[in-house]
Structure formats: C-alpha cells, structure tokens
Write a structure and sequence with these properties.
The protein has 377 residues and is mostly helical. 56% of the residues lie in helices and 4% in strands.
C-alpha cells in the first residue's frame, strides 16, 4: 500500500529508526526524491485541507526524525547536506495539524476512508501526536471519540499514552464502557490492563469482579474434559490469568478459583499424559517439577531439553525425528495442514505435543515462586 506524494510513490508514513531495515528504505526514498522535495518546499509547507495533506504532514514529521539520524547512514555528504538544508526550510508548525484534527476527527479516524496508507502506521503516528505531543491543543471531543471507538487499541498499548492518562485519570474509565458487551473470554485486553496497572479504585474493582465472576461460571464446565480435549490447555491459561486478577483485587471469588485450581491442573495433566505417549516421554503427574525442586544441579533447567553424553549436551528432542507412524491412518490428508517427506503428519504431531508439554512446564516454573527465581538466575 502506498500513496502518491509530489508524484513520488511513498510506501511508509513511519520512520522506524536507523537500526531497522525499514529505516534504510525510508532514507533511500528521501535520497531518490531529494530533487523533487527541494523544488516543492512551498507545497510541503501548505495547510492541511484533506487526508492527502495529512499524510504529507505525518510523513514530514517522520522525515524530521530521520534527519536527526542521517549521519548514521552511508549517504554521500553532498546529499546529506541537501537533506539537512531542506529540513531547515520546512515548517513543522503543529497548529496546522491541531486545527485540522479538531475539525475533522471523525473522518480522519474512519478506517474505511484511510485507504492509501497502512492503517496501523497511520493511527500509531496519529495517536502519538494526539495523546502526547499535541494533547494540550486537542479538543476533549476528540479523546472521547477515540476512547469510544478505539478503546482496545488504547488499552493494549496503554504505556504509550500513560502521560496523558496520568493527567486525566477519570478518562481511563471511558475505555471500559464496552466491557459488559463482550463475550466471555474475549476480555483479555481488559484483564491484562487491570493486572498490569493494579488500580484499586471501586470502579476497577467492580470491573474485575464482572470479569472473574463471569469467567468462573464457564470454566467450571471444563473441569471434566476428556484427555482428548485440546480446549483444556487454553482454559488453564485463561484460568491462571483470571485467578491472578481475582487475587490482585482481593475479590470474593478468589476462594472459588483456589477451589478449582487442582481440578484444572488434573484435567491438564490427563491431557498431557495422553498426548505425550506417542513420543515416549515418561512424565506423569509432573514428576519432573518435583525433580527440578529437589536437585541443586547447575544445569537442571537445561536438562529439560538436553542430556549429557560424551562430555557434551545433546538435544534430546532429536528423538522426535526417529519416530515411526503408529498406523497408516496418521498420514491421511488433513485440510489446511501441509506436509512433506521430512515433516509427515506423525512427526508434526510429535513436535506439537512436545512443544505443548514444554510450554506447560515453563508456565508452571514461572508460576512457582521458588523455581521462577532459580530460572531467572
């Protein structure tokens, strides 16, 4: 996706820095277009009257950022000097941006109308300017509109906008207006925000109560899942998040989560034991966790994936590639799943089971206070 700017094709609004390949591509675009840019300074400094003009203004802000790092690139000195001189001739006056946004924010923030640039780049730059750089000049109606339409975007990247919300703490509540309309388990962004920010205000405690209370009703239905049911893995991860939320906000339902923790773990154990059988990993009832706690060997965590042989560590997952199919039915074609001679389905199944097992073991290590400290060290 690209937009036309002074008859030049611009692929990206955003400059990603000198440490990124995309940054080099941005510089190349400038170098290739330097003559066109120099001959259109008055056009570059025009007012913002439509979306095309706004794209131009945002690109120029990225250009200004790029100029501050131009010496990091292998660009001929003569071109560097022309780029720096051009930068000095440009008017980056924020008044143009602020006035246009205040008058046209509904159109600007309509994703269907932003069709010539990448939406993720566009709103990323735009929100940075609105919430941070130019927030003092932006009308309250603009913030209210964004909080209503793009609440999850703000919550998911809340640290980017924390300076604004530290000054407008009541406005954070606007981001939760749609929580009650979500489906169960579709509240992960809200949950993560509440866990990370720990705002012990009555409003947020009630939101946490809603999330945890609704979720535990559905989680109970999964306690007796069969060993073949993959849903338990996802349910256990969700359960751990909701339980953490309940504990942080000291909710009454914490006791209920604690009551069902063993049942969830046992359901997960049944699934893992069933799934790891094809690769002959002798792990039952998570004896490996007990062994990790008991042993004081320096390399004990490395032994989750390696064993010591002939004075060196060997990857014990290599055994997966020696696996044999249990029956011919394992290789029946599966819709949407590719296979090859090197990676037939039965080996893919063994790899998936092994990955699932090790992810779960790592999760348990991180949750266990003693093991997580040892792992971090």
């Amino acid at each position: 996706m690209r937009f036309k700017f002074l008859n030049e094709d611009i692929e990206s609004l955003k400059y990603y820095g000198s440490g990124d390949l995309a940054g080099s591509i941005f510089v190349k675009t400038v170098v290739d277009s330097i003559a066109t840019l120099e001959s259109n300074i008055s056009k570059l400094n025009d007012e913002i009257n439509d979306l095309e003009d706004l794209y131009r203004y945002l690109w120029l802000l990225s250009f200004k950022e790029m100029v501050s790092e131009i010496d990091n690139y292998k660009v001929p000195n003569e071109i560097k000097e022309r780029i720096k001189k051009l930068n000095e001739s440009l008017d980056y006056c924020p008044k143009r941006f602020i006035e246009y946004i205040n008058k046209n924010f509904e159109d600007v923030l309509d994703k269907t109308k932003v069709d010539k640039v990448r939406w993720d780049e566009f709103y990323d730059i735009l929100f940075e300017l609105i919430f941070n750089k130019y927030s003092n000049g932006i009308k309250s109606e603009v913030f209210e509109f964004i909080e209503k339409k793009y609440a999850l975007n703000i919550l998911a990247c809340f640290s980017k906008y924390s300076d604004y919300y530290n000054k407008n703490k009541e406005s954070i509540k606007n981001l939760f207006n749609n929580l009650e309309n979500t489906n169960v388990f579709d509240d992960q962004i809200y949950t993560t925000f509440l866990i990370n920010n720990k705002i012990k205000d009555t409003f947020y405690i009630k939101k946490a109560e809603f999330i945890c209370g609704r979720s535990i009703k559905y989680i109970k239905k999964f306690l007796n899942l069969s060993a073949e049911s993959k849903e338990i893995y996802q349910i256990q991860n969700l359960f751990l998040e909701y339980r953490t939320l309940a504990i942080i906000y000291n909710l009454k339902c914490t006791n209920e989560y604690n009551e069902y923790k063993n049942a969830i773990d046992e359901a997960m154990n049944r699934y893992l034991i069933k799934q790891v059988q094809p690769i002959n990993l002798n792990i039952k009832n998570f004896e490996i966790i007990s062994k990790l706690k008991e042993t004081k060997e320096k390399w004990k965590f490395l032994q989750l994936t390696h064993f010591f042989k002939n004075e060196k560590f060997v990857n014990n997952l290599d055994k997966i590639f020696n696996e044999k199919p249990k029956s011919s039915s394992t290789e029946f074609n599966r819709i949407g799943v590719a296979k090859s001679e090197k990676y037939p389905y039965f080996k893919q199944d063994a790899m998936s089971s092994n990955l699932l097992l090790n992810i779960h073991i790592i999760n348990i290590i991180f949750i266990d206070r003693e093991l997580s400290k040892e792992f971090a060290n």
